[in-house]
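It is worth pausing here to work through a concrete case rather than discussing structure prediction in the abstract. The textbook approach is simple: state the sequence, then state the predicted structure, then interpret. We follow exactly that order.
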Amino acid sequence: MPFISASRITGFLLAVAFVAAPAQAQEMTPADIVGVYQGFVSSSGAYWEITTTFKIDEAGQLVGSYIYDENGGSYMGELSRIRLTDDRKIVTIWSEALGSGVLEAEFSEGFSAFTGLWSGLEDDDAVYPWVGKRLE
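Step two, the predicted structure:
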């Protein structure tokens, strides 16, 4: 997946911001966020396309995975210990071959998109965007 242009990112952010406009609180269940989301993630000083998937596993737990291409390499990772927090927010641990860290994300009303920030365990002061829009 190629590097994403600034104009494409701006358009995507506007679409997500419009969808995620404040509204009446809606209590979230794990089933609400199950699905495949296409978006972008910031890494190594650039933005890369990412596909993030949430599902319910055989034990009834909400789990996730993701895949993105960066600088010619494809990276896959897992989202574990997903915790539902306030309204439409989650906190989860991401892990892949290159490291691990925390992702905090907020879903839009209707759960059609999320905006999040990720950080690495080794440097939790720096945070980077991770967003997705549900594929229809």
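Step three, interpretation. The chain has two helices and eight strands. Strands lie at 35-43, 46-56, 62-70, 73-84, 89-96, 99-107, 113-120, 123-134.
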